[in-house]
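Hi R.,

Here's the chain you asked about this morning:
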Amino acid sequence: MGVYSIDNFNDIRLPKDACVFIVRTEWNKEIVDRLEEGAVNCLKHFNVKHKVIYVPGAVEIAFAVKKCWDYSIVSSRPSAFITLGCVIKGDTPHFEYVCQAAINGNTQLNLMLPVPTIFGILTVNDSQQAVERIGGIHGHKGEEAALTALKMISFSNATENPVNR
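And here is the predicted structure, written out as tokens:
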């Protein structure tokens, strides 16, 4: 695993029925496939069930997360969502608009839903920077997103007030 190692997560306490929904983009498939692979491997390491949902691009992720939550049956709702994508800067302001929409959508979901939505969307200047974040010199952002989801599930399910920890 990457720099954000599972060794740093000895205190994770997960419910037996923990399940994570990964909502990922179809754009920049090669990069996002690797992000998904890292996230799934991490979830499997912790014996956490998962489901993967595909959407066209990063702007559509927030809508898909909300619909997944709305359509899920109360007894089988996800414990967390992980959003995965890769937005590579081009020559137009499109990059800024897409990144801002994805970030704003993720923030809104975290304020609206009772479960965490983890931002695992790479926002990079070029393909090399993306490669460096899927197992390269900057770790593996898919693994990091999954570890963050697990940590937040544990935090969400704590029986004691987090202020008193």
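One quick note: Residues 83 and 119 are 5 Å apart (CA to CA).

Cheers,
M.
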